[in-house]
Structures are given as structure tokens and as C-alpha cells.
Specification:
Layout (H helix, E strand, L loop, with lengths): L9 E11 L5 E9 L3 E5 L9 E6 L4 E10 L3 E9 L17
């Protein structure tokens, strides 16, 4: 088989994630491998996943805007266009009591 990837991919040990289908639905998935620009996702079915979607990666806490490059029945190869940080909830800062 001829290797067509521009960058080497790192195989991941079944990192879970979620794909945002629309504002009300998400699909659980497994991030199988990844490179700086591409990700392979395994999920039960790719039928409901749009061509552009948001992927959250549980292991790293990343939120990525992705575009599907190829599809199989249970896998999607996608290009990560952007890392989204402003949508993630920010930790609340709590004031420490001042001891007199």
C-alpha cells in the first residue's frame, strides 16, 4: 500500500470523544489516530454526521472544528480546521478567605 499522508499519524489507545451533530444531538466516538492536521474517528454509523462538525476529545479536553475528508460505514477521516477554546466552560475562580 502506498502511503499518501503528508504527515505521520500517531495511533491513540482508544481515546473517546463526541461529535456534535446539531444543537441537540451528539454521537460518542473513538479517536483512533491523529496527525497535526488529520484525525481518524471510529463510531457506530457515519450516516448522521455532517461534512463539517465539532469534535470534542475527552482525553485532551480539545474542541476541534473538523471537515470530513473520507467516510466508511463506521469511520471518518477528517481534517481539523481549528481548535476552539472560547466555547469551553472556564473554571470559576473562588476567593480564598482572608485570615486576619
Amino acid at each position: 500500500m502506498i502511503e499518501r499522508r503528508a504527515e505521520p499519524r500517531l495511533c491513540l489507545p482508544d481515546v473517546t470523544g463526541r461529535i456534535l451533530i446539531d444543537e441537540h444531538r451528539t454521537v460518542l466516538c473513538i479517536v483512533s489516530d491523529r496527525s497535526p492536521s488529520g484525525i481518524k474517528i471510529t463510531l457506530p454509523s457515519t450516516d448522521d454526521v455532517p461534512d463539517a462538525f465539532i469534535l470534542t476529545v475527552d482525553g485532551t479536553g480539545e474542541t476541534l472544528v473538523c471537515r470530513a475528508a473520507w467516510r466508511k460505514d463506521d469511520q471518518i477521516g477528517c481534517i481539523a480546521d481549528a481548535l476552539v477554546t472560547e466555547w469551553r466552560p472556564r473554571p470559576t475562580l473562588r476567593r480564598q478567605p482572608v485570615l486576619a
